Amino acid sequence: MSAFRKLLPALAGLALAGVLAPAFAQTYPAGPIKLIVPFPPAGGTDVLSRVTAQPVAEITKWNFVIENHPGAGGNIGLDIVAKAKPDGLTVGLAQTSNLAINPTLYPNMPYNALKDFTPIALVASQPMVLVVGANGPYKNLAQLVAAAKAKPDSITMASAGTGTVGHLGGVMFANRAGVKILHVPYKGASAALTDVASGEVVMDFATPSSVVPLLQAKKLRAIAVTSAQRLPMLPDVPTVSESGYKDFVAEDWKGYVGPAGMPADAVKRFNAAVNEALKRPEIRKKLLDEGSTPMGGTPEVFAALIKKDNPRWGQAVRDSGAKVE
After folding, report:
1. What is the pLDDT of residues 26-61, one digit of tens each?
2. Positive or negative, the Cα torsion across 27, 28, 30, 32?
């Protein structure tokens, strides 16, 4: 059981209480801060929001109220943030999907990912792990690419769904390697990985936490990770960059955003609190145990990442031909 899953019972109590810390009279915030999570309760984004908001509340004595508004790949929740009053009392936990992928994946977006938000602080990034069946013939990335080049579309790639980070990360890699692969979308990661393990599908770019149990059971083989550095939880698995595709990185990142026009002082104070929270050993351990890397940094660093990744993931969407009506 992952560190995040072990935390769920305790965090559920926080959700029922509706607040994470007692109120503290000060100029900012002038009241409770509404934290919008654009995905369902108990999912990865929801758990991460609680794991990070709790220490921020402890550090600042701010009052947080967490609200889940799932739907449309995170667009519904993020649209609430985009249209909120820019007083710093409504923020959201955004990620690659709703700020970099969805603007191209969805033909009718309710917000402008580059203009309607104030980046506050990066929280964490998580790469994908390229896995194949443990009983299959492929021991490394070179062998997999050679097979794909020898017979285009013979290599099948499972994913948790069309337009997901795993699907589009695979598209990015296929384009970089100059190969054609056949995408096989599933309704969730579990079914996809089950078929990879059985040999029904050749490969999958999946999250670290979803593959580790099957790796430990020797049903899957990990042949590469899409981060810039090797994962501490999978130290023997090389990066895609190490495997011959220099500087290839494809990661799912998450961070706090507010509406456009959020006061600079509020952004500065919120950012400082997130950075302090991410220095706590217990928080870093929880993130690392899930295969995530604690990030932090300035709002400007987060803004630059959004600006850089929006067209990059958008191109992957166009290359894939995926659309969500």
Report:
1. 589 999 999 999 999 988 899 899 999 999 999 999
2. negative
